[in-house]
Amino acid sequence: MNTLNTKEDYQKLLLQLLEPLKEKFSPQGAGISLYGAGASYPENIIVMEAFARPLWGLVPFWAGGGRDEFWEKTYQKGLLVGTDPKNPEYWGKCEDFDQRFVEMGPISLGLLMAPHILWEPFDQRQKENIAAWLYQINQHTLSRCNWYYFRILVNLALKGLSCPYSPALLESDLEYMESCYLGHGWYVDGVSDQKDYYSAFAMEFYSQIYTVYGKDGDPRRCARMRERAGKFQEDFVYWFDEQGRALPYGRSLTYRFAQAAFWPAALFSGAAGASDTSAGLKTGQIKGIINRNLRYWLSEEIFQGDGVLSVGYAYANLSMAEKYNAPGSPYWCLKIFLLLALKDDHPYWREKELPLPKLEKVRPMGYADILMQHCGKETCGYVPAIYNKNVLGHFVEKYGKFAYSSEFGFSVSHSSEKLEEAAPDSMLAFVTEEDQRVYVRTRSISYEIGEDYIDSLWSPVKGIMVKTRIRPTGFGHVREHEITSEISCKAYECGFSVAKYQPGYECFLGPNEAEAKNHSHLCKVVIEEIAPERNTLYPVVIAADPNTNVLNKNTVIPAVAFDITPGITRIKARIERRIYDNSGI
User: Fold this and answer.
1) CA atoms of 430 and 397, how far apart (whole Å)
2) CA 347 to CA 31: how far, in whole Å?
3) Are 516 and 522 in contact (CB under 8 A)?
4) DSSP letter at 282?
5) pLDDT one-digit tens code per residue, 172-220
6) Which of 254, 372, 422, 497 has its CA 20 to 30 A from that of 96?
7) Inter-residue contact 408 to 552 (CB < 8 Å)
8) Distance (Å, whole) CA 327 – CA 330
């Protein structure tokens, strides 16, 4: 990969990422036809989405002085065609909860940041078509979540261009975003319970753009938004390890290096970047986070054979996708290129990338419902299984596991019929005698996050109640469970997934432990205490189905099983993990 230092370096990288799309535009240019995944909306919207999402990178490219004749002419033509009611490729009339509202976001960003490309060259009728198509967002009901920011961007852009807009909705949407604020920079994504990357690459990202283009008429709110971003970076830095990997956790992971898009947004608004760590992360430290994250992703199998980004995580994988992941969806990752809007004399372009600052080993984040453990080479998050019921795809696996790791990832279930298909890594899994199905923690009934522990009360299946305490240790964590059961079954204390078919791969089973390792990492599950003491332990290594883990295509899960009988069973397990390199552990 090219060196990432100057603005020109990042511009070249953006254009390289976009190159495979050049031959995939629709006949009139208002869509991009890609293959490999379906979504919960029709094909005409899927191709429109694929057209819009590259604008997350192209608009900052243009705003920062970048020029490329092909992309300028292509997007000028496509925008005019898509908003012309008389053209067969017209993007159409919208409905309530329409996916096209999401794609209005990058188009509106273009009107705000790059009007010299996407507005000023057009005649009056063309401008009216664009404004009228965008204005539809004011005439329909939106999902109560980060979608309100797309309407904010639309109205902010229309206002700035002296077009009809809705002042009332602009203000009420901003107020709704205020109601989503939790504290210390964290937002909840509207009507939901989980806290995840949407606080970073949505709420914080859009709010920082608003602080730049809304500051003249709304200075107090903008100052408050910048202050929040400054606080958020103090927590969010823990989500990245020394290798540049971010924590695989939550939904929309197919957006990949959008994980790091908060940092360019905070630089753009002036909320991040400082000369000393007392005032926030240094600009060079932020550059290091961004560059290492980009390098990591570009070293993984994230591209299809034609060079187009795939739906998946570290490789193409529809098993872990949400129902809104269409073939063009992954280009949301181009939000990281908001960097390109920074002025040519911004310190970012002359700073050298620096390592992460010194971080605490364990950091509770109450507003994010997560306890972070930072081990340098790896970052690990412990969570209490709190998320909304509007399940969009594998929410149990994306929010319900005991621990998430940048080294080991997590696995999604193919079914609950067999342990191999359930792939219950980082779970306490129950297999009932009655139906032989696999049950795990879904949502917690109650929970508490302390300075160095997480408690949760949960029920995997009717007749079983579990109290769990998770406490991080130096190279892993300890789990303590009190299981109150009315039924007989078998339980499996499962560790992290370990990649097989790798150099150095081997497994070990002892009287009370199971271990799996390869040349790069190890996971061991050890049962330290169990009551009643007569309970027999059954160490196993579960061969998970292929393509269940988001990082590795083939994995095994070390686990220790034990019997559950009616009454109370108490167990204490130690989960060890190791990461190897040429210098040792």
Assistant:
1) 15
2) 37
3) yes
4) B
5) 999 999 999 999 999 999 988 999 999 999 999 999 999 999 999 999 9
6) 254
7) no
8) 7
